[in-house]
Design brief:
The structure is a single chain. By secondary structure, the chain is an all-alpha fold. It has one domain (about 5-345). The chain contains 13 helices and two strands; from the N terminus they run αββαααααααααααα. The longest helix is centred in the C-terminal third of the chain and has 27 residues, at about 320-345. The chain is globular, with a radius of gyration of 19 Å. The mean pLDDT is about 90. This is Undecaprenyl-phosphate alpha-N-acetylglucosaminyl 1-phosphate transferase. It catalyses: di-trans,octa-cis-undecaprenyl phosphate + UDP-N-acetyl-alpha-D-glucosamine = N-acetyl-alpha-D-glucosaminyl-di-trans,octa-cis-undecaprenyl diphosphate + UMP.
């Protein structure tokens, strides 16, 4: 079973990092100022992501057995947190961010030689296998996941909650599969995220000490989620997959569907798929009179339901083509509703 001391170390290191960086953030420009798209009050330190990664880094170094996989994950995570921090301070261009994300994805995928090559029997019959082309697919998937979590980070607690739900679901599937050696890393990430959520959303948080995750945090969470999903869904010579690939769609459902629906709508409009706007699910809920706290509960609730369907579908061994078909149907409905209420909110 995972080491309780490791979880305590991760939690304490995350809190300590927040306390150290809180007074420093304004002096180095690591703050978020309100504008027409950001409606918060005052300058908020963007240190949540750094605190989460610090907790994971220290606890992983101390308590997880040294391996090429964990070393490359930590190196890639450090790079993505660094890039995200630069973006938080200097507001990098979309092209620069995508380039750096691609480099980090290549380091992780090609360095570890772990990638998505088997999609399972998603159409019934034989498994869909793409072999070494999976390296390119996985690099693109890493970039997509990084941006999906970056896009969903729009209201207090949302990116953190989405991350905990997804990573917690992965950990639960590992537990059901008796993968006790693999469960420590996702649990460290979940525990390291809790202090950030307290400073971000708790009503007991002292006034003036609110923090945001920042691009460093949302990009790190996206990288982490897709990497855990890759490790969990693919067989290797030494390990057996923890769950089937189609289940990954359900565990990351809301960030994935929101990103795809938004990008499709932007392309149909003739805009760049990466052009920022107020068309995400949290923006639409807020525009239609839902409070930020209620929007958090609604979106988190939807994410929990989708993740539970995925977990139960895996435990009951529901056929993969059925899981994919139902997911696709839900995505179509989600996209249509998003379009409908986006139009209403603009009118």
């Amino acid at each position: 079973m995972f080491d309780i001391l490791a979880l305590v170390v991760a939690f304490c290191c995350s809190i300590l990092t927040i306390k150290v960086l809180l007074p420093l953030a304004p002096h180095i420009g690591l703050i978020d100022l309100p504008n027409e798209r950001k409606k918060h009050d005052g300058a908020i330190p963007l240190i949540g992501g750094i605190s989460i990664f610090t907790g994971v880094l220290i606890a992983s170094t101390l308590f997880i057995e040294n391996s090429n996989i964990i070393n490359l994950y930590l190196i890639s995570s450090a790079l993505i947190v660094f890039i995200g921090t630069l973006d938080d301070i200097y507001d990098l261009s979309v092209g620069s961010r995508m380039l750096f994300q691609g480099i980090v994805a290549c380091i992780l995928v090609f360095g570890a030689s772990r990638f998505i090559s088997d999609f399972g029997a998603i159409f019934g019959g034989e498994n869909v296998v793409i072999g070494d082309y999976g390296m390119i697919f996985t690099v693109l998937a890493v970039i997509a996941a990084i941006n999906a979590f970056n896009m969903v980070d729009g209201i207090d607690g949302l990116a953190g909650s989405m991350s905990i739900i997804t990573i917690g679901s992965i950990a639960s599937l590992m537990a059901f599969n008796n993968s006790s050696e693999s469960i420590l890393l996702p649990m460290l990430i979940v525990v390291s995220t809790i202090p950030y959520l307290f400073y971000n959303v708790s009503t007991r948080n002292p006034r003036g000490k609110k923090i945001f995750m920042g691009d460093a945090g949302s990009m790190y969470m996206g990288l982490t989620v897709i990497w855990l999903l890759t490790l969990g869904t693919q067989d290797t010579a030494d390990t057996t997959a923890t769950f089937r690939p189609v289940i990954a769609l359900w565990l990351i459902a809301i960030p994935l569907m929101d990103m795809l629906a938004i990008m499709i709508r932007r392309i149909r409009r003739g805009d760049s798929p990466f052009k920022a706007d107020n068309g995400h699910i949290h923006h639409i809920l807020l525009a239609n009179g839902v409070t930020s706290r209620k929007a958090l509960w609604i979106i988190s609730g939807l994410s929990i339901v989708m993740a539970l369907i995925g977990v139960v579908g895996e435990l009951l061994i529901v056929q993969e083509w059925i899981m994919l078909s139902v997911f696709t149907l839900i995505f179509v409905v989600y996209s249509m509703l998003l379009q409908k209420y986006c139009v209403i909110s603009k009118s």
